Amino acid sequence: MKLSDAKVVITGATGGIGQSVAYLLAERGARLLLVGRNSDKLIALVKHMGSEHAWLSADISCAQGRADVMLEARRFGANMLINNAGISEFNELARFSDSQLAQAVNINLLAPMCLTRSFLHELGESPKVVLNVGSALGSIGYPYYAGYCASKFGLRGFSEALQRELTDSRHQVLYFAPRATDTNINSNAVKQMNRALGSKTDSPQEVAYALVKQLQQGKKRVVIGWPEKLFARLNGCWPEVVDNALAKKFTKIQKFVKMVNS
């Protein structure tokens, strides 16, 4: 699909990655329906981008919020959905309540699944594109990210299964996995940990360029960052190698989760 012909729904549109993607797509001629929970930020974003774009304040963690998104997407004539909204928590599993774990699964996995189903099957038969924003931690289980990894592993599996289910369809489902990105989704402790470990962090703009490039090329799956790409492959074939590599860093990682709880 040419981006100049795209009418795109973007969830999590006021976040770091969401905003950067929105600006790039608008520059390439796409029309956008920006979805988030903060009305003031959405209004400011659309005001800056132009009146041809639209916004909707909705909570996609609940059924009514998702229904509102689909109703507006139908009115907008949307033919592309970017499931970008997500949350991340870095802590010991024992520190998470049932509601916190449910929220992670709800926003990172259930909401994209439900929105994708409705988008592909309730908005007519015309060809559509869905891009699910996952994470490098959707392929690598990382200490103190148990809830986040579980939801992002699930999103990767959902995307892959649906890609294969739609083999003879005109619809496309793409999966995009960035590594650590310099946005507010990461706490100060996580940012300090990444620096201490020497982990590369990408800017939202770098991530957005890679995402838009994937849309232009139609690649089914893209993982950005090195050595994250290598670790993802190793974890699939020889997880013991990744076990050992992370075990060597565990004392440092543990230091920063203690900072969260101090």
From TrEMBL:
Keywords: Oxidoreductase. It comes from the Bacteria. Signal peptide: none annotated. Transmembrane segments: none annotated. The keyword Iron-sulfur does not apply. Belongs to the short-chain dehydrogenases/reductases (SDR) family. This is SDR family oxidoreductase. It comes from Thalassomonas haliotis.
